[in-house]
Amino acid sequence: MQMYTYSRSTGFWRVLLVLLTTPIPSLVLVALLDALSLKSTELGLAHSGTTWVRGVFMTIIESYAVISLLQHDVVNLELSSCWTLTIFTATALVNNALALGITTLLWYPLPFILFWMAWPWIALLVLFVWLVKGAFIRANPGVLTKLRHFSSVATSQLATIMAYSIFKAVFLIVPTAWRPAFAMILPVFKLAQKNLLARMLKDRDDLKPQVIVFNVEISNALFITNSVQTGVSIDTSILLIATDFLQLLVSIYDLSLMLSDVRDFTNKLEVDSRQAVATAFTIMETHPGLAEKKVLDRVFQSKADLFRNRTRRSAVVTIECISPQFQ
């Protein structure tokens, strides 16, 4: 709904300007962080000051991004700018102090420290948000439900990092002859991850496309390109590409089923799809409460139900066509 309103009230040149300038702040921040010179890890923990300073700034940026997403997802949370600054700064400082303490007790550099510290980082974010808005969250069960959904998605993202790390470590020690078969775990994991995120975001169709694309499609492609290419043979690469192409065809087929149902609906109304969409948005603008009703969930619980419904209707039509021949 917000995207529809934005597209109607925003000009083409402004949208183009926003698209061109949006990456600039991120690129500047990355350049500034990379400008910090890092000492060799062989010099030990005593000469790692710039590493920890860089880690604090990176965690501040990441924490701010997560808090911004949280406020976008849970609109009623209403964190002030002061509290937002306090939460992501405190999270970054405490998390990096914890990482420094663990490194001091164990050894430097600690392998996979970014991965191991991701879990307490999310926990600290949730803790500080709860300390600031705990009374409000307890008084509003709907906000608590959205926070749980958000935490589930964030946890699944961290689990994805762990799964890819484990896959890479095991893939490099698997015998070469078994690697093509072992590589087929990636498409299966990708499919499972897409369905898991889709179920987690079943009530948030506005967020579902970008969350799935960035956390599944792009992450999977980057992992295959950057991490596994050193140990992947030509046969394995062809197998992975063919499997991705097959999954793409399945997705297109699912989309065609949904579009076919939409066309059947608009044909019954004797309007085209654009008029139907415009009418739906007009109704939602006039009656905002209807946007919260789960009309589609009562019709189709999943893509499997949609497929079965489409197959059943096709079978009925086929029987109606051939039954006169036997009368």
Report on the structure:
78% of the residues lie in helices and 0% in strands. Residues 295-301 and 315-319 have low confidence and may be disordered. The chain has a domain at 298-327. It is mainly α. The protein is globular. The chain is built from 15 helices and no strands.
Low-confidence stretches: 295-301, 315-319
Q: Which strand-content bin applies to the residues? A: under 5%
Structural class: mainly alpha
Distance between the termini: 52 Å
Q: What are the secondary-structure elements, in order, as H or E?
A: HHHHHHHHHHHHHHH
Fraction of helical residues? over 70%
- Characterize the largest beta sheet: strand count, sense, and whether it forms a barrel: none
Rough outline: globular
pLDDT averaged residue by residue: 77
Give the helix tally.
Answer: 15
Report Rg: 25 Å
**Secondary structure tally: strands:** 0
